[in-house]
Write a structure and sequence with these properties.
By secondary structure, this protein is α/β, with parallel strands linked by helices. The chain has one domain: Phosphoglycerate mutase-like (Rossmann fold, 3-Layer(aba) Sandwich), CATH 3.40.50. It has seven helices and six strands. It has a six-stranded mixed sheet with strand order 3-2-4-1-5-6.
């Protein structure tokens, strides 16, 4: 009973190329990101998706739109709760600048540990609650739904899985998630249908 989600990260964005902390800023996909989305769409053919759901940020919605067109689904449903976690101070800064100014804070971000960066930010537990809301809402869109989100979603899924699921995935790859009728989430196996030639292999801030 319930629904199966396949939760994937968006294709590479222009800020990913520059290793800039993106948060809820809204850069578009890079040329490689669009190729990654096309490869993801090809890999999703025959998966039996009823719907595509994305965050409302451009890099996710653009990825979802490319995939939906390839697999014959309607235009993606946008769910704001699936946005990336935000930190006002870090947004727009490059990885090297962040490490120099705030040593160790990117690792804390990726591991959902407390951070000491000054300024407004979204606490991890608040982020986790809204991600769960967003995924439960996505599950209402069909029995089998492709969800396109952001790197932070996989930190949340790692917490929900009790540390048995990796906190990081490559662009246009992800994990299967079962959503029960009671709204409970169970994180499952990896989903990596794209071509290896489009993988960046890079961690983004």
């Amino acid at each position: 009973m319930g629904s199966e989600l396949v939760v994937v990260r968006h294709g590479q964005s222009t800020w990913n190329v520059d290793h800039r902390f993106t948060g809820q800023a809204d850069p578009p996909l890079s040329d490689l990101g669009r190729r990654q989305a096309a490869a993801l769409g090809l890999g999703c053919v025959g998966e039996g998706f009823d719907a595509v759901v994305t965050s409302d940020l451009l890099r996710a919605s653009e990825t979802g739109g490319i995939v939906a067109a390839r697999i014959g689904c309607p235009a993606p449903v946008q769910v704001r709760d699936l946005r990336e976690r935000w930190n006002e101070t870090l947004t727009g800064l490059g990885r090297d600048r962040i490490e120099a100014s705030y040593p160790g804070q990117l690792a804390a971000w990726r591991d959902a540990r407390p951070m000491t960066v000054p300024g407004p930010h979204e606490p991890f537990d608040t982020f986790l609650d809204r991600v769960v809301r967003g995924l439960v809402r996505a599950a209402r869109c069909g029995d089998r739904v492709l969800v396109v989100g952001h790197a932070g979603l996989f930190v949340a899924l790692g917490r929900l899985a009790g540390g048995t699921s990796p906190n990081e995935v490559a662009n246009a790859e992800g994990r299967r998630v079962a959503v029960g009728d009671d709204g409970g989430l169970v994180v499952g196996s990896p989903f990596a249908p794209g071509s290896g030639t489009t993988r960046t292999g890079e961690l983004d801030p």
